[in-house]
Amino acid sequence: MAILINGIISGKLKGMVYFNCNGKQGVRTLPKKSTTPPTEAQQAQQMRFGITTSFFAALKSLIRAGYGTKLGVRSTSNLCISYHVKNAITGIFPDLAIDYAKVVLTKGILSRAHDAIAFADRGAVNFAWKNWNLCANPNDEAILVVYNPAKCKHVWLRTSVKRASEAALLPVPLSFCGDKLHCWIAFISANGKQFSNSVYLETVRA
Questions:
Q1: Among 20-34, 76-90, 149-163, whose mean pLDDT is lowest?
Q2: Domain of 169: which CATH number?
Q3: Domain encompassing residue 89
Q4: Which InterPro entries does the annotation name (predicted)?
């Protein structure tokens, strides 16, 4: 069934799918069900896509805001998923996994974190960096992200900590104790409109 909303049709009608694409009418044909079993290459691609979308599911708001600029009708979320399916999945099917060092959580023109490190301490992860780039705005604010693969859980925070502070703290659940955590840091302008590229900081043991 198709529904008309503000002059734009949304839904299925006579073998077509109508949708709203940034305020414009979009349409595509309904996919036909295949009776042919997927090839190994198709299964591998489906698995890459599934791993990637699962990883980023809890980071949607960060990706929407911080993953560069949308390209045509492709949203920043689409661009993020596409990039990681192509560049951040390692292994041979069916043993595929994310290469966390290749994960990019934000993209932008701000100076990235330099000489950044992370270490765990009493239910938190401490982040530290050097603010030696004279072109960087000292009032940029730190974004901290950790991922616990054992529990498939992210913790992230846009802090009010300034770039000039050179250190910030991210509390993590006590249930993370003993688990390996992957860590990233990025910066956002004080007005929330510009981002840096995120930086991967290896792993820490909570």
A1: 20-34
A2: 2.60.40.10
A3: 41-102
A4: DUF6266
